[in-house]
Amino acid sequence: MIGSVLGEKAIDQDSPLPDVVNNALHLVAAHERRPWRGLYLLGKKTDTANKKYREELLPGCSEDIGGGLKPDEQKPSAELCRVALYNMYHAACQAGVPFPDFDTLDQYTDTKVASYFIMNDAVQGGSVNYWVSRYQREEVKDKVFSEAMQEKYLDNYFLWLGEQYYMYQYERERLDKELTSAHRGKISDYGPLAGTGINPNTNADDIKSQISELDSLWGWLNDVKSVAIGLRNDFIVNPRKNDSRIKLKPQVYNAAVNRAVKFLEFSRAVYNDKNLAIIIIFDGKYTIFLFCA
Asked: For the chain, what is the domain count?
């Protein structure tokens, strides 16, 4: 849906349903950023009356909706797709598809199929179904898809990314300083323990383990920063004369560049040792205030 990382692609593909189709449910991946994963709406933008379809925004990338990920392969949990699976199963039953009753599914199919609907993972005490419901309730305010709604959603999403990047980098720098200090202590204490087989300073190993875990969870935000820098350079720092992107889609690319600039403000705040930004939003427009520590 989002296109590339900072929302550089608009929703401009319409795929009207065939007349023979009476009703349809379209589950949309809200966090899909790959340019080759386009969003095709089920109707025309001007088609607001007599809709034969319903489109719902779900968190995650394409595989989080359609399935295909294994646990711990690309992310700790692969259960987001089970929410989409259950929603499709429920919608099909409501439409009259003769599926077995959900509670007795394991009696009609092999155990493997029934297990696809089981949700065991929990984050902060909440199941994946709970967090998806909360996301839809708190984040997805508009029920009708539009470019304006998508842009508003992306603004909020990348503000959140900026906050996460700030906290990730702040913690990373704190651990780097502790590691440097631990290495200095290791050098000064190593002599008397040489040849004993005793690690003179296990603190450095513990800090390295913390850094490794932190990078595994949040290191991907560095890729977002790289793309943000590229957009800023392409359109602000060193614009290319033959670059026609912003001419073809000024609304989309101007918004993407603005998000890139805002994201990089969080990055500079860490570098300059400033406190986390306070974000105030007025009528969809946001201002970032950074206060010195």
From this structure: 2
